[in-house]
Specification:
Structural class of chain A: alpha/beta
CATH class of the largest domain in chain A: Alpha Beta
Number of helices of chain A: 24
Number of domains of chain B: 1
Helix content of chain B: 25-40%
CATH architecture of chain B: 3-Layer(aba) Sandwich
Strand content of chain A: 5-15%
Number of strands of chain A: 12
Oligomer: heterodimer
Distance between the termini of chain B: 55 Å
Number of domains of chain A: 2
Largest sheet of chain A: 6 strands, parallel
CATH topology of chain B: Rossmann fold
Largest sheet of chain B: 6 strands, parallel
Helix content of chain A: 40-55%
Strand content of chain B: 25-35%
Shape of chain B: globular
CATH topology of the largest domain in chain A: Rossmann fold
Strand order of the largest sheet of chain A: 1-10-7-4-2-3
CATH class of chain B: Alpha Beta
Chain lengths: 490, 219
C-alpha cells in the first residue's frame, strides 16, 4: 500500500474533529482492556506469563539466523518450496511468477500485514491477477480504498451504511441494509463462490516453528483455513522475525498473542501446516511456497539499539492501550502499521527523516512497553529515532536556521550548567524577566518566542528564593517533629 | 540462492550473544483437573462460544443425538469423514432420518469432494483430540479426514472419544508432533463456530466457516 507516513499532524487534526471516530475510539479502548484482562486471568500469574513470552522473543532475536536455517531445512524436508526475498519487489515478483506459471487469473488472500507492507495486491492487480481479500475487515477496506484503521480490525470504525453502499455497487448485496450481520453474510456468500473454485491462495504467517518446519495461522473467520484447504497452490509469506524455536514455545506465544490481540482466550481456528498435502489426501495444497522476506530487517538486525523492534508479534495490544491512538485512531499513521508498533517499525522501513512526526506523536508514557507481550521497548526506540534525527539535522553542513538556533541555545545552556556562578547569575536574570511578565502568579506568554509551548499551558511564576537559598536559611540544628507540626499549624 | 546467502550473511555477521536464561514456565492450573472436571470445563468453555456438547451413552444414543441435531437444524444432506465414526453408524442415522449421506470414500477426485463440501447442509467428522482448557477440538488431517468437511459446510458435527479429552494444548501437540515421521500435513485446533466482529465490533457466528458446532463425546 501507499505510504502516507508524512501526514500525521494533518490527519490527526482531522480525526480529532470527527465525532464518529471519537465516540468509537473512546468505547473501543475501554472494552478491549476489560476483555484482555479477563482472558489473561486464566493464568494464575499473568505477569509471569508475559515474562515468559518476552523471554521467547528475546531468544528468537539472539538466535535468528540459526533458527531460520533450521526452519528452512525442516520445511524443505517436508516438501515446502522456500523462496528468500531481499525486498518487496523480489517477493512480489516471485508470487506473480507462481500465479503466471500456474495460469491463475484470480487469487484470494488471508489477512496479512506483511503483504500490505510490500503492496502485493497492487502488484498482482497491475499485472493482471485479480486479488480478493477474504478477511471481512480487509474486504471492506479493499473495496472502499481505505487504509487500515486498526491492525486487527481494519474497518471496525466504518459505518455499516458506507459498507452497504459499496457492497451494492459491487454486486455483493441486493438490498441496502445497516445490519452488520446481513452485511457479513453477504460477504460470506460472495467469497464462498471464490473459495469453491479457488486455484491459488495467499496467506501470511503468525509463527514459523524451527523445530518442525511448520507454520501457524491464528484466525476467527475461517478464511485462512479456506485458503489453506481449497486450492492446489498455497503461497505463505513471512518476515524473518516470525520464526520461533519450538512447538512448545509456539503454543505459549499463541496463548499470549490471542489474549493480547482480541482479548479472547482462544480463536476459532489455529492451524498448523507441515508440508503440502500427502499424495492420497483429497484436499489441501499440492504445493506450498514459503516466501521468507527480509525487506530491510537484516539491516535492522545489525543495529543493536533498535533491533528490539523485531520482537514484535503484531498483536495490536499497544494500539489499544495508547493514549495517542485513543484520540486519533489509525488513519494518521498513514500505513499498514498503526499505533505504537507502527511508530516503532515505520521509521526503520521508511527512513527516520521521513517519519519525524510519527515518533514524536508520543507522550513517552510507556503504556505500550508495559502491555507488550513480546518485550518491545517502544519509548526507548522513539527517543533513539528523535536523537538520530536531530544529530543528523545538526551535523555540520546540514544546518538550517532553526537547527543553528537550537545548537546555539544548547551550547549556552551547557556552558551555564557546567559553571555554578554562571547558572546562578542566569537564574537571577531569568527570574526578573519572567516574573515581570507574570500575572496572578502565572506566566502566560513570552513575547518573541516559544508560542507553541504556551498555546496549551502556563508556567507558574518563579518563587523569590531558589532551593539553595532556602536551604541556606534553614536552621542548622535539627528541628524536632513537634516544631514542624507547630509550623504547619501556623 | 543469492538472496538467501545475502540475508543470512548479514544476520550472521552480527556479534553473537548468549540468550538470557528463561524464567520458569508459567503454571497451567488446568493440568490438575480430573476426568469429570475436564468434561465440565470443556463443556462450559465451548458453550461460552455458542457450541453444544453432548455425551452419548451408546451407539444408539449417538444416533438419537445426531437425529435431534439434524431435525433442529433442518439438515437434509451430510458429508461425513466415514460411515463409521468411533462406532457411530452415520449411514443408519441418514436412512432413519431421510438424510442423504456421502462419505469420503465416495469421492476419488478433489473437485468432486470440494463440490460436496460446499453444498451439503452439514459436515460430520471425527475429532482426534479435545482440549478442556478452552473447549477446543484437535483435528488431524489425512486421507480419511479431508480439511474442507470441518470448514465449508454451515454446520459442523464432531464425534470425539471421551478418553481423547486432555487438559491443555501441550498434551495434544506433543502427541501430534512427537513422531517426526508421522507429522500430519495439517493439524487444526477448532474452538467454536467461525466468527467475526469486523463491522462495528458486532459479533456474529458463521463468517466463512460453520455457524454452528456440535460435539458428541462417544461412549
Amino acid at each position: 500500500m501507499l505510504s502516507r507516513v508524512d501526514r500525521f499532524k494533518e490527519m490527526a487534526h482531522e480525526q480529532m474533529k470527527n465525532e464518529r471516530s471519537q465516540t468509537f475510539l473512546s468505547l473501543f479502548s475501554l472494552g478491549f482492556s476489560m476483555l484482555r484482562q479477563h482472558a489473561l486471568s486464566s493464568f494464575p500469574d499473568p505477569v509471569a506469563a508475559a515474562s515468559y513470552s518476552r523471554s521467547i522473543r528475546a531468544e528468537v532475536l539472539e538466535r535468528m539466523p540459526e533458527l531460520l536455517e533450521e526452519f528452512e531445512k525442516k520445511a524443505v524436508s517436508r516438501g515446502v518450496k522456500v523462496i528468500w526475498a531481499r525486498d518487496a519487489a523480489e517477493a512480489n515478483n516471485a508470487i506473480l511468477d507462481i500465479a503466471r506459471q500456474k495460469g491463475v487469473e484470480r487469487v484470494t488472500k488471508g489477512k496479512s500485514m506483511l503483504t500490505e507492507e510490500i503492496g502485493l495486491n497492487e502488484h498482482l492487480i497491475d499485472n493482471g491477477v485479480d486479488v480478493y481479500e477474504t478477511d471481512l475487515g480487509e474486504v471492506i477496506t479493499q473495496q472502499l480504498g481505505l487504509p487500515p484503521f486498526h491492525l486487527v480490525g481494519p474497518a471496525v470504525n466504518v459505518p455499516p451504511e458506507e459498507i452497504s453502499d459499496i457492497f451494492l455497487k459491487n454486486g455483493i448485496l441486493k438490498e441496502p441494509t445497516a445490519d452488520p450481520v446481513t452485511l457479513g453474510k453477504a460477504a460470506r456468500m460472495f467469497l464462498r463462490e471464490k473459495f469453491r473454485n479457488l486455484e491459488m491462495g495467499i496467506v501470511g504467517v503468525n509463527m514459523a516453528v524451527a523445530e518442525t518446519g511448520s507454520f501457524i495461522n491464528v484466525e476467527n473467520e475461517g478464511n485462512i483455513r479456506m485458503n489453506k484447504s481449497s486450492p492446489k497452490t498455497l503461497v505463505a509469506v513471512m518476515s524473518l522475525e516470525k520464526v520461533v524455536p519450538t512447538m512448545a514455545d509456539a503454543i505459549h506465544m499463541t496463548r499470549m498473542l490471542i489474549r493480547n490481540c482480541t482479548g479472547q482466550k482462544m480463536t476459532s481456528y489455529v492451524s498448523f501446516d507441515t508440508g503440502p498435502k500427502k499424495a492420497d489426501e483429497l484436499d489441501g495444497p499440492e504445493e506450498i511456497y514459503m516466501v521468507i522476506l527480509d525487506n530491510g530487517r537484516s539491516e535492522i538486525y545489525k543495529d543493536f539499539k533498535v533491533r528490539g523492534v523485531l520482537k514484535c508479534i503484531r498483536c495490536g495490544a499497544c494500539l489499544n492501550t495508547c493514549p495517542v491512538f485513543a484520540k486519533v485512531g489509525g488513519y494518521p499513521y498513514g500505513f499498514a502499521y498503526t499505533g505504537p508498533m507502527g511508530q516503532a517499525v515505520d521509521p526503520l522501513l521508511w527512513g527516520i527523516e521521513n517519519t519525524t512526526d510519527l515518533y514524536r506523536a508520543s507522550t513517552l508514557c510507556g503504556a505500550c512497553k508495559e502491555i507488550c507481550p513480546a518485550g518491545v521497548d517502544h519509548p526507548s526506540l522513539f527517543l533513539e529515532y528523535r536523537s538520530r534525527e536531530i544529530l543528523k539535522k545538526n551535523a555540520k553542513g546540514n544546518r538550517t536556521s532553526l537547527s543553528r538556533l537550537e545548537n546555539t541555545m544548547a551550547t549556552i545552556s551547557s556552558f551555564g550548567m557546567s559553571h555554578g556562578w554562571m547558572w546562578n547569575f542566569g537564574v537571577r536574570c531569568a527570574k526578573r524577566v519572567l516574573n515581570f511578565l507574570s500575572r496572578d502568579g502565572y506566566i502566560r506568554d513570552i513575547p518573541g518566542g516559544v508560542q507553541g509551548w504556551f498555546s496549551c499551558r502556563d508556567l507558574p511564576a518563579l518563587p523569590d528564593k531558589t532551593f539553595h537559598e532556602r536551604w541556606k536559611d534553614l536552621p542548622s540544628e535539627p528541628v524536632s517533629s513537634a516544631d514542624i507540626a507547630k509550623k504547619e499549624v501556623i | 540462492m543469492q538472496a538467501r546467502e545475502e540475508i543470512l550473511g548479514r544476520l550472521k555477521s552480527v556479534r553473537k550473544t548468549t540468550p538470557a536464561a528463561r524464567p520458569a514456565k508459567p503454571v497451567l492450573p488446568e493440568i490438575d483437573l480430573d476426568k469429570e472436571q475436564l468434561l465440565q470445563r470443556f463443556t462450559a468453555e465451548l458453550n461460552a462460544q455458542a457450541g453444544a456438547v453432548y455425551q452419548a451413552k451408546d451407539k444408539e444414543d449417538a444416533i438419537r443425538i445426531l437425529s435431534e441435531i439434524a431435525s433442529a437444524e433442518g439438515i437434509k444432506s451430510v458429508l461425513a469423514t466415514s460411515g463409521d465414526i468411533y462406532g457411530v453408524d452415520i449411514r443408519a442415522f441418514g436412512s432413519r432420518n431421510n438424510i442423504s449421506v456421502s462419505t469420503v470414500r465416495d469421492f476419488s477426485d478433489r473437485k468432486a469432494l470440494r463440490e460436496s463440501a460446499f453444498t451439503v447442509d452439514a459436515g460430520i467428522t471425527s475429532a482426534d483430540f479435545a482440549v478442556a482448557e478452552t473447549g477446543t477440538l484437535g483435528l488431524v488431517f489425512h486421507k480419511d479426514q479431508p480439511r474442507l468437511i470441518s470448514i465449508a459446510p454451515p454446520v459442523h458435527i464432531a464425534i470425539a472419544p471421551v478418553d481423547k479429552l486432555f487438559a491443555v494444548y501441550e498434551d495434544v501437540i506433543e502427541q501430534v508432533f512427537k513422531n517426526t515421521d508421522k507429522i500430519p500435513s495439517q493439524f487444526c485446533f477448532i474452538t467454536g463456530p467461525s466468527s467475526t466482529a469486523d463491522i462495528k465490533g458486532v459479533h456474529f457466528k458463521g463468517m466463512h466457516g460453520p455457524g454452528k458446532i456440535f460435539v458428541i463425546f462417544s461412549f
